[in-house]
Specification:
Radius of gyration: 49 Å
Oligomer: single chain
Order of helices and strands: HEEEEHEEEEHEHEHEE
Shape: rod-shaped
Number of strands: 12
Strand content: 35-45%
Distance between the termini: 129 Å
Structural class: alpha+beta
Number of helices: 5
Strand order of the largest sheet: 1-2-3-4-5-6-7-8
Largest sheet: 8 strands, antiparallel, barrel
Length: 389
């Protein structure tokens, strides 16, 4: 039976280790570590009644999760001395035995049902380990306690594990176990082994403990490989759609800007139109449009022919007068646009007076605020000069 248990444990550890080999090669060294403390009670398996003779035990552990199903760790346990040595405290110790073990743990829930990416609330683990025990002397003579003894131990047990919190960083576990001394055979005729798991020299223990799992390189406290990252596919898709929408909106805006620039350039280069209409017999009215750039009152060279046309007419018809009305587009502050419209009318008047020597009393300049003569707002940055006979 004992050989069978050892064989089964060896097969399970070998299988899980092979299954974890690829994950281990990808995992970073400082990922998936945990520490824990535990305490409980123990008694000798065949020499004592478990409840009646139970003594305290406590210890600590540290381990690394190799795969979702396998963990390797080291634990140290201390065992409190029997009460019957209280009559000789000068020879006694608070702890009469310690045991340090290398323990391999198999998560049966993940091994059988598969790992879903995060720990379950409740899981069952099985473990086995090899250790080294040290028994301390408790009295002055050997009738009360054995001398100092070192011996190899082997243990088998299970963990009833409860994972707590949203991040599963903390766990509480209840752990029954059976620990054997691996010692010489008492009756050579009954066994062919040099050493065996001696049930007569074993103890049973039950402990409860708390474990804490450190955060890994991906920000999670539960198992992950070093290259694994959180599933952000939904957020990534949302951001990608948002980026595509912004790119489309930017392209549309650039296209609209290009169209407006083309229309504005066409308006600036537009040849002056002569609008003639009969107001009285043999009387004509001449109208000329002078365009301006954004927020500007300076007459550019391309607009000089429009001003010169008015000047030529006034020189040929000495009785004619001109009314210049300045306008602004609707962008910006209304009061500033009103002043801008008046300044554009004055700019045309000043040019007629200074350059073409037209008498100022034949020119009437006035600002008419926001213009609405043209469908495009930019085209309303103008001064319109109209001849009055």
């Amino acid at each position: 039976m004992k050989r069978t248990l050892l064989s089964v444990a060896a097969i399970v550890v070998t299988f899980v280790s092979a299954n974890a080999q690829e994950m281990l090669s990808k995992s970073k060294f400082f990922d998936n570590w945990q520490v824990g403390v535990k305490g409980g009670g123990f008694s000798w398996t065949t020499r004592e009644a478990f409840i009646k003779n139970t003594r305290a035990t406590f210890g600590a552990e540290i381990g690394k999760q190799i795969s979702p199903a396998f963990r390797l760790g080291v634990e140290g346990m201390a065992y409190v001395r029997p009460v019957q040595f209280d009559d000789a405290p000068e020879f006694g110790n608070f702890v009469d035995m310690s045991n340090v073990s290398l323990v391999g743990t198999v998560n049966l829930s993940n091994l059988i049902a598969g790992y879903k990416g995060t720990p379950r609330f409740f899981e069952v683990e099985g473990f086995a380990g090899l250790g080294w025990a040290h028994i301390y002397p408790q009295g002055a003579d050997n009738r009360k306690a054995p001398n100092v003894l070192n011996g190899m131990t082997s243990q088998f047990g299970s963990n009833l594990l409860f994972n707590l919190g949203q991040s599963k960083a903390w766990g509480i576990k209840i752990s029954p176990a059976l620990i054997y001394f691996v010692d010489g055979v008492e009756n050579r005729a009954e066994s062919n082994s040099q050493n065996e798991l001696n049930l007569k020299n074993s103890w049973t223990q039950v402990t409860a403990g708390v474990v804490y799992r450190f955060k890994g390189s991906n920000g999670a406290h539960h198992f992950t490989t070093g290259t694994q990252a959180p599933d952000n596919s939904a957020e990534l898709a949302r951001l990608r759609d948002e980026l595509n929408g912004k790119n489309k909106q930017l392209a549309d805006n650039q296209k609209q800007i290009k169209n407006l620039q083309d229309e504005l350039e066409a308006a600036r280069n537009k040849k002056p139109e002569v609008i003639e209409k009969v107001v009285t017999k043999n009387k004509k009215t001449l109208e000329s449009v002078v365009t301006f750039r954004v927020a500007k009152t300076t007459i550019e060279a391309s607009q000089l022919p429009n001003v010169e046309r008015i000047a030529s007419y006034l020189k040929k018809h000495s009785d004619a007068k001109v009314v210049i009305k300045g306008y602004a587009s609707p962008e910006g502050d209304l009061e500033k646009n009103k002043k801008l419209a008046a300044a554009r009318a004055e700019a045309v008047k000043t040019l007629l007076v200074n350059r073409y020597k037209i008498s100022a009393d034949r020119i009437q300049a006035e600002g008419n605020g926001i213009g609405d003569m043209f469908s495009e707002p930019d085209w309303n940055r103008v001064s319109i000069a109209t001849i009055v006979d």
